[in-house]
Amino acid sequence: MTFTEKYKDEITEILSRYPVKRSALIPLLYVAQRDQGYVAESTMQEIAHLLRLTPPQVYETVTFYTMFNLKPVGKFHIQVCKSLMCALVGSDTVIAWVHAKLGIVPGETTADRLFTLSVVECLAACGTGPMMQINDDYYEQLTEDKLDRILSDLRSTGTSPLKTGPFMWPESAPLERGA
């Protein structure tokens, strides 16, 4: 079964939201990646045909955004921010710790297919580096001890109590009038 056959209803719904077909490219790529864990070349070709794009136009979008994978990744995709701010506070050290603990370098996956390591540009947590994202969760102000606990928790339970998740503004007390 092809990608477009398997997700016919969802694709139809996505396409209905966009008067310009090309605008549906990123949502369709998310569907493809959700299905396989990465965006396969054959799926890129299907999407290109569907949107009346060339396969290179789809490929350049997939390779531009770090949230899309061109090959299968482990259950836990570790992405270490390498932007200037994180580099200045130790992102190379975090990569070295991951290498020492898991035996992988950027672009590799552990033999048990549990962890994949990638380096990415800015993850928008400049004030709390060095940091990394694992799947959808942020881990900030990393130390070697924190990394050990995160990896241990992920191996044993599949979750980590240290995850920070999406940023939420702290709730503040309502302002009093006349104060």
List the helices and strands and how they pair.
Elements: H1 3-6, H2 8-16, H3 25-36, H4 41-51, H5 55-64, E1 76-81, H6 84-88, H7 91-102, E2 115-120, E3 132-134, E4 137-139, H8 144-157
Parallel strand pairs: 1-2
Antiparallel strand pairs: 1-3, 3-4
Helix pairs in contact: 3-4, 4-5
Could you state the CATH homologous superfamily of the largest domain?
Answer: Glutaredoxin
Shape: elongated
Radius of gyration: 20 Å
- CATH-defined fold name of the largest domain: Glutaredoxin
Question: Which structural class fits the helix and strand makeup?
Answer: alpha+beta
Helix content: 40-55%
Number of strands: 4
What is the C-level CATH assignment of the largest domain?
Alpha Beta
Going by CATH, the architecture of the largest domain would be 3-Layer(aba) Sandwich
Tally of separate domains = 2
Task: Round the mean pLDDT to the nearest integer and report it.
Answer: 88
Description:
- 43% of the residues lie in helices and 10% in strands.
- It has 179 residues and is α+β, with helices and mostly antiparallel strands.
- It has 2 domains: 3-64, NADH-quinone oxidoreductase subunit E (Arc Repressor Mutant, subunit A, Orthogonal Bundle), CATH 1.10.10.1590; 76-157, Glutaredoxin, CATH 3.40.30.10.
- A 4-stranded mixed sheet has the order 2-1-3-4, with helices on one face.
- The chain is elongated and about 50 Å long.
Summarize the entry for a quick read:
Helix 4 (41-51) crosses helix 5. The radius of gyration is 20 Å and the shape is elongated.
